[in-house]
From TrEMBL:
Name this polypeptide is given: Olfactory receptor
Alphabetic keyword roster: Cell membrane, G-protein coupled receptor, Membrane, Olfaction, Receptor, Sensory transduction, Transducer, Transmembrane, Transmembrane helix
Regions that span the bilayer: 65-93, 105-127
Membrane topology designation: Multi-pass membrane protein
PANTHER family: OLFACTORY RECEPTOR
SUPFAM superfamilies: Family A G protein-coupled receptor-like
């Protein structure tokens, strides 16, 4: 309560919900506008965007670039916000006078940081890996790592 007021909390929650909604809306609109020529069977346990694009018969280069740019901007904004937040959190934790208090605070923060790191690294790999590394088994493992495990 002393570091962040309720107004700042509401603004951050609204930004997170707004960014997520915008990203979902763009991907959903794009997905429903793609003509599928190679059937509708996806080699994943959910409809992953790169897998849906593989089923498309239309030239989707501009569509993919547009989505990539918007998603990268949203991702970069969120990533910067998370890094700045963690810097502030760790700065505040290091100012705690007692060793026990610092240990308790770090034990609360580190698991979240590990989960965020796992999500970001595997998600980045899934979407930015070269096509030469793509295989159905690898795509499935990476999708599980960034969607189910966190």
């Amino acid at each position: 309560g002393t570091l962040m007021g309720s107004r700042a909390c509401v603004k951050m929650a609204a930004a997170a919900w707004g960014g997520g909604f915008l990203n979902a809306l763009l991907h959903t609109a794009n997905t429903f506008s793609i003509p599928l020529c190679q059937g509708n069977t996806v080699d994943q346990f959910f409809c992953e965007i790169p897998q849906i694009l593989k089923l498309s018969c239309a030239e989707s280069y501009l569509r993919e670039i547009g989505l990539l740019v918007v998603s990268a901007c949203l991702f970069f904004g969120c990533f910067v916000f998370i890094v700045v937040s963690y810097v502030q959190i760790f700065t505040a934790v290091l100012r705690i006078p007692s060793e026990q208090g610092r240990h308790k605070a770090f034990s609360m923060c580190l698991p979240h940081l590990v989960v965020v790191s796992l999500f970001v690294s595997t998600g980045t790999f899934a979407y930015l890996k070269p096509p030469s590394l793509s295989s159905p088994a690898l795509d499935l493992v990476v999708a599980v790592l960034y969607s189910v495990v966190p």
